[in-house]
Write a structure and sequence with these properties.
Length: about 120
């Protein structure tokens, strides 16, 4: 089964279009480096929990929206090789001309790699 990298971030709501443009710039690089697909999603129904929730996890303010994204890879080996290349790719550097700045506080991003263990298809 595939391997998934998941990301949760707080994005200033006013930066929604910048977030989309940032994703459109960077997400094709994941595909180029072996990912099967990339999904970027904008929070619409993200309830407050009693103990914890997505908003608290990324310390989202009232002026921010939680975005949830994932990258699907065919396997962990492809992911490890692709992510290594991605971190070395100059297109990832927001200080380079032509690269969009991050439209969110990357220090509050939570992320991780996950082994798929169950898959159900329609």
């Amino acid at each position: 089964m595939s391997y998934i990298d998941g990301f949760v971030i707080a994005v200033p709501t006013a930066n929604k279009q910048k977030f989309i443009e940032h994703a459109r710039h960077l997400d094709p690089i994941f595909i180029e480096l072996g990912a099967i697909r990339v999904i970027e999603s904008w929070g619409q129904d993200v309830p407050d929990g009693k103990v914890t929730d997505f908003r608290r996890a990324v310390q989202a303010t009232a002026e921010e929206t939680v975005a949830f994204s994932w990258v699907e890879w065919p396997d962990k080996a492809t992911r490890d090789a692709g992510m290594k290349k991605m971190m070395e790719d100059p297109r990832m550097d927001p200080s380079k001309p032509g690269n969009p700045p991050m439209p969110f506080d990357g220090k509050r991003m939570i992320f991780g790699g996950f082994e798929a263990v169950v898959e159900v298809k329609a």
